[in-house]
Write the structure tokens for this entry.
Amino acid sequence: DVKVTQSSRYLVKRTGEKVFLECVQDMDHENMFWYRQDPGLGLRLIYFSYDVKMKEKGDIPEGYSVSREKKERFSLILESASTNQTSMYLCASRLSSVAGSYNEQFFGPGTRLTVL
Amino acid sequence: QQQVKQSPQSLIVQKGGISIINCAYENTAFDYFPWYQQFPGKGPALLIAIRPDVSEKKEGRFTISFNKSAKQFSLHIMDSQPGDSATYFCAASVRSGGSQGNLIFGKGTKLSVKP
């Protein structure tokens, strides 16, 4: 059973703080993703990574960075948290993105971040 | 052209009724159409998926109908139950490597099934 875990379910931070959100998957998946989920806006892709030390910007990367030093771990970093980054953050993983494949994407339970 | 438009935004159905959620897309290169189900406090999970070589796929009470010419697909939940109350996301992608293979999600439909 694939498991994607996120370090915190709820997090409260202050404006200007540096925030780290951690995600770990246990199925040796190559691809990992960070989304934010806001009411009425659905799931918006922040960053994704196809393999260790690789990263690519998604649709809304501004104000975020990521790190993938090990295959199983993908970190989302808010360099200087702002109130408009209050949101639900979802991590996901997928076996691979090889052309011709349809690989299911597995999501973690989410981290509800509040920036005061 | 990369968007997937989902409707309605919210839906209330009586127990035993049929829930229908619709999605439309523009990119004719899309060839994989999954639906994800998300319960409160949980991450989305794959519910059912279809490829454009078939017009319908059924798994239990859940059916995807696909209309390639209209570039539309829909989720039908038969005999809806209170336990089906969740947010449903449609998505689409192409069978391609790299970022083109990333899922494009609709904005979601919050379904409430009343007892």
